[in-house]
Design goal:
Blueprint: H1 6-18, H2 23-26, E1 37-46, E2 52-63, E3 69-76, H3 81-97, E4 104-110, H4 118-132, E5 141-145, H5 151-165, H6 189-205, E6 213-217, H7 221-232, E7 236-241, E8 246-248, H8 255-265, E9 275-277, E10 289-292, H9 301-306, E11 311-313, H10 322-330, E12 334-336, H11 338-341, H12 344-358, H13 364-389, H14 393-412
Parallel strand pairs: 3-4, 3-5, 6-7, 6-10, 10-11, 11-12
Antiparallel strand pairs: 1-2, 2-4, 7-8, 8-9
The structure holds nicotinamide-adenine-dinucleotide.
The site of nicotinamide-adenine-dinucleotide (NAD) has 24 residues, from α7.
């Protein structure tokens, strides 16, 4: 098995967790290894200089036994069909972990958005919606932001879908700007959910959060916000990284200062009062908590051997390969798995969708209280299940999710 094929890794995670599922469910697990539908589209785009380029996009609908398909759209030059398949499978698991009534899907376009103008990006996004229009919809499949897509991208998706359907359709997509019926609290939701889960874990272990040192790889929506929230909790952020640079300061980095620097210089590279280190060195730092918040496969078996942190909070999707998981387990390092750790994002997406459909809008306090309750419950279920079954938290989270999806599948009679 290749360590870098995210879909192979997702299948291995299902197989590793199947031992925790009941015997009668085991034969149904096979269904979860196959996405229900794969859509591939070509999107022609007239560039600002008059030339024509054709981009490839995907939408993979993994499973809808528990509700409409749900999952983000990624713009990245490294997008592959296997990556989108893996991300769609993880979405099905994630929605089941937090027990919200959604299935799983994911989308992606092979593009380097940094090389497109704003006008080109808008037309590429609208072109994607035109191509997948028949397959998405407020109670069919609901996209959201992911790497290199944001609230603006979601506003274009909402607008294009509404134009084509001749109906105002805010519930077709989540992660919209608040001015366009987005939810308060969506921008920080992924990190906020991760924070709740980490704090619950530390509480269960009787550890004072204020004594923790933290390294964060990735300084975008997920990475910046978790660094800020944990810094606000009194933890010391000793290292941060983006795609251009990795910086370390033993006495702690102020994430808000780093963000201001990044906004001015395009990267955290050469951040004042910090030492530049090699990108892979962040994983081997002498710190308590390591947070991968960039892309898949960041921690492979070689990197895993260098990890010194005792806790890894997976804010990115699929940042640890199955081979690395084995090494981390042998080293007694706790992995708080992605399908739990970053599920705050889809949870507040669900809140946004509920608000759009009900036309009733909630305060930030309501959103944050509801998010906290869901994250604490999901953590408690998984932590207890893992202790009972003597399994890792990843296998416990997968098994719990698989049990829920299989139960819904059996009840619907798709396969009896
Ligand atoms: P983003 O585009 O806002 O940020 C990505 C960050 O990762 C950027 O700072 C980029 O420079 C950095 N990066 C990319 N390659 C890197 C590398 N090799 N080394 C170091 N840094 C690198 O994306 P995001 O929304 O923060 O998503 C990050 C991860 O979190 C992804 O795996 C995504 O699927 C996952 N996630 C995001 C959300 C969400 O709500 N945004 C929800 C769930 C999961």
């Amino acid at each position: 098995m290749s360590e870098t094929n995210a879909f192979d890794n997702a299948i291995a995670q299902i197989e590793n967790a199947s031992g925790c599922c009941s015997n009668s469910d085991k034969k149904l697990i096979e269904i979860l290894k196959f996405p229900q539908k794969i859509i591939e589209v070509s999107i022609p785009l007239r560039m600002d200089n008059g030339s024509i380029r054709v981009f490839t996009g995907f939408r993979v609908q993994h499973n809808n036994a528990r509700g409409p398909y749900k999952g983000g759209v990624r713009f990245h030059p490294g997008v592959t069909l296997d990556e989108v398949k893996a991300l769609s499978l993880w979405m099905s698991m994630k929605c089941a972990v937090v027990n919200i009534p959604y299935g799983g899907a994911k989308g992606g376009i092979i593009v380097d958005p940094k090389k497109l103008t704003g006008h080109e990006l808008e037309h590429l996004t609208r072109g994607y919606v035109d191509k997948v229009f028949d397959f998405i919809g407020p109670i069919k499949d609901v996209p959201a932001p992911d790497v290199n897509t944001n609230a603006q991208t979601m506003a274009w998706i909402m607008d294009e879908y509404s134009l084509l359907s001749r109906e105002h359709s805010p519930a077709v997509v989540t992660g919209k700007p608040v001015a366009n019926e987005g939810s308060l609290g969506r921008d920080t939701a992924t990190a906020m959910g991760g924070k709740h889960v980490l704090l619950e874990y530390l509480k269960a272990k009787g550890v004072n959060p204020k004594t923790m040192t933290v390294a964060v790889q990735g300084f975008g929506n997920a990475g910046y916000n978790i660094a800020k929230l944990l810094h606000d909790e009194g933890m010391s952020i000793v290292a941060i990284a983006d795609s251009k640079g990795t910086v370390y300061n033993e006495s702690g980095i102020d994430p808000m200062r780093a963000l201001k620097y990044k906004e001015k210089h395009g990267s955290i590279k050469n951040l004042p009062d910090s030492v530049e280190i090699k990108s892979e060195e962040i994983f081997g730092l002498d710190c308590d908590v390591l947070i991968p918040a960039a892309l898949e496969n960041a921690i492979d078996h070689k990197i895993a051997k260098t990890v010194k942190a005792k806790i890894i909070l997976e804010l990115a999707n699929g940042p640890i390969t199955p081979e690395a998981d084995i090494i981390l387990k042998e080293k007694n390092i706790t992995v708080i798995p992605d399908i739990l750790a970053n599920s705050g994002g889809v949870t507040v997406s669900y809140f946004e969708w509920v608000q759009n459909l009900s036309r009733d809008y909630w305060t930030l306090e309501t959103v944050e209280n509801k998010l906290r309750e869901i994250m604490v419950n999901a953590f408690t279920d998984i932590y207890n299940f893992a202790n009972r079954k003597k399994a890792t938290m990843r296998s416990a989270a997968f098994a719990l999710a698989m049990n829920r999806i299989i139960e819904a599948t059996k009840n619907r009679g798709i396969l009896s």
